[in-house]
Structure formats: structure tokens, C-alpha cells
Specification:
single chain, alpha/beta, UDP-N-acetylmuramoyl-L-alanine:D-glutamate ligase, Protein-Tyrosine Phosphatase, Chain A, 2 domains, 15 helices, globular
Amino acid sequence: MNITPPLHSDDLLTWLNYWGQVHVTGIDLGLERVIPVAEKLKVTRPTAKVITVAGTNGKGSTTTTIAAILQQAGYKVGLYQSPHIYHFNERVKISGKEADDQTLIDAFVQVDQARRECGLSLSFFEATTLAAFQIFEQQQCDVWVLEVGLGGRLDVVNVIEPDLAVITNIGLDHVDWLGDTIEKIAFEKAGIIRKNIPVVFAGQQTLPQAIQDKAEQEQAPLYVVNRDYFYTEHDDAMWTFASPATTLKLPRGHLALENLSTAVAAVLLSGLNVSDQAIQRGVATAHIAGRFEVRKIQAKTVIFDAGHNPHGVEFLLKQLQRFLQCNKQYTNIVAVFSMLADKDIDAVVELLKSVISEWKIAELDVPRAAKIEQIQTALQGTQTQQFKRVAEAFQNALEQVQSHQLILVCGSFHTLEAVWEYIDHVNE
């Protein structure tokens, strides 16, 4: 497909639309096309320290916390994450600040030139990820913290040679792409492991054989939660991280302990010079939109959570239980809910049914959206109200809920995005 690049455009959206059209499919796993372009850009072996994080859930919180700690330690940190919730710029941060439009556009021009010289097409995700690497290289970041988008072995992030690999957990998600068993998915995630580098595995389940085998094959020292490091919650204010080498008392922070502890383990194994104080400050300040994010909107309590598969929702329910124990005035939860068609809607709904009293549903305005009939079928037997748009469902929830009720916006990043857009529009 020969599409003219918008070389002289200073409009980020124009470039993002361009990258959405260059390649025939949105998801095309494999590194054959990406590696030559990455090598042309000279980003495959950065002089910076590289920490790569894969896993089914928790990657965003873990990478955010690693970056926050390293920033507190004085390092210039390039943080790459996906997907974004509202603005594309969220995906590329340098020392906590989102890349501006012009920086992204300049990188897109360079990526496009490189891929044309190689005679190759790139998917949206491949092109935008390479642009992030180009920015980190040009900005001379000390550390790159990279979140894997899908799987690990064949994901574009894996063109970079990491110095430390983190696998947050393994759950059944993206089964059409990664396989339909935990071991098959673990094999894909284990693809980020390299020779002799430390590997953190933070999954609550038994260590998958595929990860054990890959670590042994690469002679990569493997550090496993509840075996090589531990974490204990004391109260709402403090928790303890412990390993044979150290014990740290740390503030509770804003994110789930499972992910905070993974980040601390990774930092301690990174070989970087990081004080206990930097770890404490990083843990205390790390936050990320849409990960059990509690906000007051028009005097109503709203929780935003981007969990979109059974494992993520189980995690959400644990955090919700803890929140309700501390906030006993809430006895009723109203959900603003929608999902993508390729997710396990039945399993997600089954988990949430026990805590949600009323559902306000709508179809997402994206190509992979689940049809309203599919959502309605999964919710059979519940109190459900249907709307044309997610924004309308949220507006209705704000108008209807009473002081003993809270609103839970969940099911997909896209559900959260639709609500953010509504809130921004109302506040204009």
C-alpha cells in the first residue's frame, strides 16, 4: 500500500491516522519487518540501561513505579507504555513528562524514512514504538523502562536487548494471538529473557515451566515472588519489602502492592545506584490513571479501573473489597460498563455480578467493540439499563446515584476514555 506520508504536517493526529493505514493489519506479531528498521535507526542496542516488563496484567503500574523510583534517584528515565487512556502522548514520557506533539512528529518522520529505505511497512504499534525508542536515544535517557504491548517474544519491544526482564504474571488473555493455555502464553512472555540478565517473576500462580526453562537455557538468574522476595501489608500506611539482601519499610502509595513490590524487586536487581529514600519517595508518588483510580466528580465517588480480563478483574475485586472495608458508607455499586468483543465478557461479568447492583451499558465507539446484544446476553438476570453511548450512561449514573452508592467505570481502556472525554467536555 503506497500512502503519502504527511511529512510537512505539524498535526499529531494526521500522523497517527497515517500509521493506522500503512500496514494491512493492526496486529501483526513478528520481528522480521521491524528489526531492519530498528537497526537502520540504530536503536536496538542503546547505551542506556534497559528494563523490559511483560505480563498479562500489572505492567502499567509496575513500569510506572520503576520509573518513579529511578527518577527520584536522579536518573533521566524514558518510560514507554501502551495503550494510552486519553492522549497518545501518554505512551512516551521522559522523567515523568509526556513527549510533546512536535517531538513525536519528528520521530515519526525519521521512522517513516527508515522504513521506506528498507522497503517495509510497519503496523501502527510497531511504528509508534520505534518512534519512542528514537526519542529516548536522542534525549540521551539514562534508563529505558519498556512495557511490552502483546506477549513478549514477537512484540516490537523485544527488538531491544534488555539488561533486566520482568514478567508480572501470566493469565489467559489474547488467546487468539498467544495461545490458549498458561504454558503457551508463558512461553511467549519468556521471550524477553536474555543471556545472564536478572529476571523477576511476580505471578501469584506456580512458576510456569516455560519461564523456568527459558531462564535456565539463558543462564539468567530468576527471582520469584514468595520465594526470593516477599511483601507484607501492615496497615493503610505501611508495608514491608523483604529479600535475603534487604528489608525495607515503605509507604502504601497509590498502586497495588503486588505491582509496587515487583517494581522494588526490579530496581534492587538493576545494578543502578538507588537509595532507600529514593525507593520510598518513588513508591509514595507513583500513580497511573485508570488503575483503581478513585475520584470525586460532581460530589460523587467514582472508581476508574481498566481491568479487561478475568485476572485483571479479580485484582480489581481485591482492591474494591479493601476500599469498601475502609469506606463503610458505600453499600451499593453502580457500574458504567462496556467491553471489546474479543475479550472474555462472560467471565468478567460473572466475577463482577457479586458486587454490582446496577449496570449502565453502552456500545463502545471503536472497531473491536462488543455489540450491545453480546453485553446484554452476558448480563442476563441483572438490573441493566442500556444507552447509546458510554458518556450518556455515565451522565445518567452521576445524576441518579445517592450518597450510599459509588460508580465503577470498568470493562476496557476505551470505556474509561469515553468517560474522560465526557468529563473534559463538561469542564470546558
